[in-house]
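Quick illustration, no need to memorize.
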Amino acid sequence: MPPNAKTKPSRYPVTGAGLGFRMDLIDQMRANPPRQVDFMEIAPENWIRVGGARGKYLREFTERYPFVGHGLSLSIGGPAPLDDGFLVDLKSFLDQHDIKAYTEHLSYCGDSGQLYDLMPIPFTAEAVTYVAERIRHVQDVLERRIGMENVSTYAIPDGEMSELEFLNAVIDEADCGLHLDINNIFVNSINHGFDAMDYLAGIPADRIVYAHIAGHYREEDDLRIDTHGEDVLPEVWQMLDRAYELYGVFPTLLERDFNIPPLEVLLKEVDEIARRQRKFNREEGADVA
């Protein structure tokens, strides 16, 4: 029986199929709140200390839907000290809106300034120790376990281990969760020439907080760009199916950040997530999560 079947309490902070909370969609969602969306995701940096009409709109939604937070600027692997002032503000925001989980990228995005991109961390034992210590500090300040997301990359610095070994080592040493990105595994498997299904079979699945599924751009046969601006490809849907087969149904969110179509178009992909979740649960004889 999948770990999040309704016959016993879920170990996940949310359940079902999710959608990102985007300003482009607010008017459409206020006019017709989507019933098939089980949870929403927000980037706290875009909303901390936001008041006025925007703040009221956010409160409408956080009172209606469970929310998770996915950060953009923590730079957990970066050389600059962590910003404790930001972490205090972040904790207040997460508590104020009852955000069910907080995750960030296993990467870095700046030093003295913001790079506005996700840079890969060298896959070394020294980096494992460094990053894990910073994750533990964040968890101490936030007073909650966080999740780290496997990121897409296009060049990898010299290292001593594989991406999967590095991911497992960091999560184990930091005692944090895994924000599983299905699309990023597939993108990296093409860009760096490894077997995506082997990677999927080796993740620390007991640490999954929730998952992303997204579209990407095919630049060349051996180069994929993680745009979050395309429809989910069949190969990535197949990976999601395999993940459910391996680990049971876990909460899964459609990530769409660019080229955002009308809400009814996005909801078709949210419906597809839910359909696959129901299919697996029926096969397993479990209630739909």
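The first helix runs from residue 26 to 31.
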